[in-house]
Each structure stands twice: as C-alpha cells, then as structure tokens.
Amino acid sequence: MSTLLLLPGDGIGPEVTAQSRRILDALALPGLEITEGAFGGASIDSHGVPLTDAVLDRALSSTAVLMGAVGGPKWADTAYDKRPEAGLLKLREAMAVYANLRPARCFAALASASTLKPEVIEGIDILFVRELVGGVYFGQPRGIETLPNGERRGFNTQSYTTHEIRRVATTAFELARARGGKVCSVEKANVMESGVLWREEVQKLRDESYADVALTHMYADNCAMQLVKAPKQFDIILTDNLFGDLLSDLAAMSTGSLGMLPSAALGEKCRPGLYEPIHGSAPDIAGQGVANPCASILSLAMALRHSLGAPEAADRLEAAVEAALDSGARTADLGGRLSTREMGDAILARLA
Ligand code: IPM
Ligand code: MG
User: Fold this and answer.
1) What CATH number is attached to the domain comprising 46?
2) Active site (annotated) includes residue 182
3) 349 lies in which domain range?
4) Which residue has its alpha carbon closest to ligand 1 atom 9?
5) CA distance 215 to 182
C-alpha cells in the first residue's frame, strides 16, 4: 500500500494538478491511495498558516507528495515567515529532501518553441542536481535589523558542511553512472569560501569513490553563459540551492517553456519524495484554465518512477506526453490554443 499526497496550492497549481489527478485515475494503480491537502496561500486562507502540522504529518507519512505551486500577489505583503513560500521551505526541510533533480530536456517537437536557435537546443538532456535544504535559503544568522545609525541591514548566510555537500554529490555521481557519466559541479569558489569547500569535497568524493565519472568544475556565472551558448556540453550539473534555482529556470526556458519541466526532490531512500513542477503559480493566467499541465504530469511520472515503484507507468506517461506534443498538442505557452484540460485529454488519449 502506498499513499500519494496532492498539495495543489495556489494560482495555476490546482488547475495543473487536476490533470495529474485525471491521469492517476486513468492509470488506476493497484494499492495506491490518493489524498489531498491544503497548502500555501490556500492554507493561509483556511488555516492561517501555509503548512499546518496536520498536513506536514501526512506528508511525512506518505510515500510521495505531488505539489502544484505556491504564492501569489494576494500574500505578497505577508510577513516573510508566514508567506506561502515559507510553507514550501518548511516542507522541504522537514522531508529532508536534499537532492532536487531537475531534468531539462528538449522535446523534439518543441525545438522551435525556444528563443534559442533549434540547432543549439535540439537534443538537450541536462539533469540538474540542486542541493535543496541548505545554503543561503536556510543559513543562520539571517534577518533584517536596524543599525545604531538608523539604517537597516538585511543579511543571510551561505553555509555548507562536508556532510551536506557529500550527500548531494553522491546522488549526482550515482545518477551520472546511469546516464552520460559526466558531472559538472558549479559554485563561485573564486569569491566564496562555501564554494571552495564545495569544490574540494566534490573532487575528494569523486577521487575516492567515483573515479569512473568525469568531473569538471565551473563558476556559476560562466555556467549561465555556457547554458545559453552551448548547452549540449552538459550531462549532470551539480550545484547549490540558490545557483540551482537560477540556472534551472534559465535552462528550462531555453528548452521551450517553463511549463514543461518537472522536478523530484529526494532524501534518504526510505523516505518520501517531493515532486513539483519547477514553474511558479503564474498569477497572470491563474483561473483561466490555459496553463500547461505537462510539468505537473511529468512530475507525476518522476514520482511513479522514484517513489511509487511504477517505473513502467512512468515510461508510458512520458511517452504519452511526447506523443501528444508530436501530434501538435500545444497550450498557449507553447504557441498553441489548447486549454489545460484539452492538453490533459491529448495526453490521456495516448496513454494506452
Ligand atoms: C523553485 C521556486 C522556489 C525556490 C520558491 C517558490 C520558494 O522558485 O522551486 O524553484 O526558490 O526554491
Ligand atoms: Mg525557482
């Protein structure tokens, strides 16, 4: 028996998650229980906090969690620690999902949807492994203080320990063995001590245990440039929480649309995984039924593969998404006119 907890959240989150729900119903996996919970702004509205203890407990006892999106202008003025995004960070931290897998693949049918030239992006298959529960997102001390001279000072701390670096690097090296065998580790060792340690520890781990994997190091600014100039050079990009946030958005967009990219956040093998589209709540189009559900559906595929013990269903689902795109199915972000539900229909129809 396994459980999948759906946390649709805010903005387009509920719309896209509804399509994943339809797919789940069609797959009808034996022994899978599906539940839903309030999260993000939706939970602030009904319970006063973005993540209640009850929902957190359910997440921790699930086999997998599929999130929609969080945040929106309605809660933008809420105190920092009560915002929808704070609920997401609390969930990631409590679930201890330190390795965030963000595959940036260019679907052949979408090569012309990119702002980059088709020949630059055709065949891109990059996997970001982003550290997700450390770094500047969580480092202490942090805050906003008033200085004696009346000026205000905002501060955060970027910090990584050996253990935090090695566990996420282990995930990257293990995954590299099953893919192209290359890891590019990205930091700013030229200006940050945490980057110096990152580089040293990743190299040490590779020399000790993963000599079969080709490891290179790159500064984050150069990586941003290379992702636009020659993205096909990359196989796995291993990086920290903040650089991973920035660089994965950059790569996602160059493969066609932010609306296509899924993610999986994994911790220790026996613990539940957290799956989310990498796009946000898109308040500008929320409620119109036009959002692209592919990132949610592909996140579901990752959940089927990595947590729910259904790799065949994951393969079928990914093939159905690709077949729908090949047949010309397009939501507005991909230059088409299909509604969220019609895109769901197009995928369902190919889920034989
Ligand atoms: C992401 C998002 C989140 C992040 C926000 C919503 C907190 O941008 O998952 O990429 O910064 O990690
Ligand atoms: Mg982001």
Assistant:
1) 3.40.718.10
2) no
3) 1-98+267-352
4) 278
5) 6
The DSSP code sequence of 264-327 is EEE-STTSPEEE--SS---TTTTTTT-S--HHHHHHHHHHHHHTSS-HHHHHHHHHHHHHHHHT
Residue with tokens 């990743």: 202
What pLDDT, on a 0 to 100 scale, did the predictor assign at position 146? 98
Determine the average pLDDT of the residues in 311-330.
Answer: 97
Instruction: Please report the pLDDT score of residue 111 as a whole number.
Output: 87
Ligand 1 pocket by C-beta < 6 Å: which residues? 70-71, 85, 88, 245, 278
The CA-to-CA distance between both ends of the chain, in Å, stands at 24
For residue 245, indicate whether it is catalytic: yes
125 catalytic? Reply is: no
Atom in ligand 1 nearest the alpha carbon of residue 245: 10
The predicted-structure confidence for 91-121, as pLDDT tens digits, reads as follows: 999 999 999 999 999 998 898 888 899 999 9
Would you state the pLDDT for residue 35?
97
Higher per-residue pLDDT: 6 or 79: 6
121 with 192, same domain?
yes
- What total of structural domains would you count in the chain? 2
Residue carrying the six token digits 């592919």:
294
The pLDDT tens digits of the residues spanning 163-186 come to: 999 999 999 999 999 999 999 999
